[in-house]
Amino acid sequence: MTQTSLSFLKGHGTENDFVIVPDPDNAIELPATAVAKLCDRRAGIGGDGVLHVVRSAAHPEAKAMAGEAEWFMDYRNSDGSIAEMCGNGVRVFARYLQYAGHVEPGDLAIATRGGVKRVHLDKRGDVTVSMGRAEFPEGEVTVSVGDRSWPARNVNMGNPHAVAFVDSLDDAGTLYDAPPFSPASAYPAGVNVEFVADRGPRHVAMRVHERGSGETRSCGTGACAVAVAAIRRDGVDPAETGEQVTYTVDLPGGTLVITEYPDGRIDMTGPAVIVGSGEFDATWLAETAFV
Ligand SMILES: N[C@@H](CCC[C@H](N)C(=O)O)C(=O)O
């Protein structure tokens, strides 16, 4: 069925920005070309990705989670590719549910491809997400910029990350292109690459090149990957010390606070903002070929 009217919202979390498309009954499909057009900053609304808001019961990938979480975050990168998880996206998604009157501030659960995420929504300002546990797949990885290379920590936060500690964030260069990594077989489905510099005790700064979106001003899963990599580098792994540990992660678009607990659970706290809302023009919509 061709879509003749559709509304959208625009939101961001530490300037990782999203086009939000409410579609409770999962009535539209989002081909990669349509997502890329929505995210185009000149010919579309513009964003690092799309948050397609669907009731879990109405989406084949989320049905099994419907008993636990009413809403499913169907996340897409700006090139139209599908990702397992988006940490900033899930905070903005929660803020949207409040904005639309679907939930009250407090505790809620959101279904994602990375499983059900528990969220605590302050009335305004911050949202905390329980991000689950990091995994550290085996294997040495190297990332490069020009003729310089760094060893990178392989971290999986539901989605893949390569975390490289550098002296200066300028070492990452322009980040127009995805930094090459080796071995080439390390990330068959691509990877998000983080460059990290120290700012003080338990305080780091990072830049990220996101799979499917390019350099963004923030990445929530990336900030978690960076924090757990820094925690292990600094020898304060909560599983060993028995103490929870909190790191502050500065990104170009703001600051995220990450806590890891002795059982490996990770909480991420940061802002989530709804900027505004609108209706797509019917002609633009028809040309954009939503299915
Ligand atoms: N910006 C997101 C991550 C989005 C997905 C990522 N680009 C991928 O393909 O894995 C975040 O805030 O976590």
From TrEMBL:
The lineage of its organism: Bacteria, Bacillati, Actinomycetota, Actinomycetes, Kitasatosporales. Keywords: Amino-acid biosynthesis, Cytoplasm, Isomerase, Lysine biosynthesis. The active site is at residues 86, 219. This is Diaminopimelate epimerase. One of its GO terms (molecular function) is diaminopimelate epimerase activity. InterPro entries: DAP_epimerase_AS (IPR018510), DAP_epimerase_DapF (IPR001653). SUPFAM superfamilies: Diaminopimelate epimerase-like. It comes from Streptomyces goshikiensis. It is an enzyme of class 5 (isomerase). Pfam families: DAP_epimerase. It is found in: Cytoplasm.
